[in-house]
Amino acid sequence: MTLALERFDVDGLGERRLSAVRRLVAAGGRGLWLAPIVAALAVTTLYPTVFLIALSLSKSSLGSPFRAFVGLDQFGRVLTDPVFLAAIGRSIVYGFVGSALQLVAGFAIALLFSSLIKGGRLLVSLVLLPLMTPPVMVGVAWKLILAPAGGLLNGWLLAAGIIEAPISFLGTGGWAWLSIGLADFWQWTPFIVILCFAALTTLPDGVIEASVIDGANARQRLVHIILPALAAPLASIFVLKLIIAFKLFDLVYVLTFGGPGFDTTNAGFAIWKHGLQEFDVAQAAAETLIYAVVIGLVTLPVVKLHAALERWDT
């Protein structure tokens, strides 16, 4: 009996050791599968971030980086630069206002397309054209449309008698931002339409049909069924468009070049100007890091709202 018990204990110990080895092998296998992802993240995210931090702490130019260690001097320069601080403010205001307007318009268009029994999906595919147009070409096209001499829009307004003299849409601050917003709206609203249309297709038909039978009108269905059901997806779309808006550069570069004066100089254009026009890559690196922190802070409430909507939806 004693020998049998000893044999049983030895066998049990062997099984436990074998199970532990199997777990280690499985963990190692998962690690091997994750290794390429970790390596890609290190190359695309970690290295550029460390490089930016190193640049921001040094005296560097485009042709001669890391000439001397200056500590936090670059950050002090950036935080006391009224031009860059104003540029950050413009980027934030434009990001939230432009993204909200495009989300409302894109959702309304998607709702219209989804209500069409035939042709809705075809129309969604047709609105892809602006999205497939290179941003530089979008800027060039709208610059020609908005030109004061020979521009299509000024020509129409003059012919209709709405204005008596051409308007310099890109030469005055308020009109310039409206022009940038119009070009951005034309380019990116189709993207919002596609995402909203896809979200609308996830709604169960039975719920909508039941509400119609119960006598709910279109406004009641929108307010009490569609919007609550799609709150989380719409928040995701808004966050995505907000990130895209914060990165705005090409339209500013082509349409106004940051002018008139500094009226349309946003954060992206200011960083480009310091880094690639004035070759002060150290200041550009510090501005990039500060702008990234600001973006993180201002988008945090939106991200938290999105997370709350996701939990509520589940």
Give your account of this protein's structure:
By secondary structure, the chain is an all-alpha fold. The chain folds into 2 domains: 2-56; 73-313, MetI-like fold. The protein has 14 helices and 2 strands. The chain has helices at residues 2-56, 73-79, 82-115, 120-126, 128-132, 135-146, 152-159, 173-200, 205-213, 218-229, 231-246, 250-255, 267-277, 281-313, and strands at residues 58-59, 68-69. The chain has a two-stranded antiparallel sheet with strand order 1-2. A hairpin with an 8-residue loop joins strand 1 and strand 2. Helix 1 packs across helix 14 and helix 2 crosses helix 14. 27% of the residues are buried. The model is unreliable at 1-10 (pLDDT under 50). The chain crosses the membrane at residues 32-57, 92-113, 122-145, 157-178, 185-203, 223-244, 251-272, 284-303. Residues 88-302 form the ABC transmembrane type-1 domain. It is found in: Cell membrane. InterPro entries: ABC_transporter_permease, MetI-like, MetI-like_sf. Belongs to the binding-protein-dependent transport system permease family.
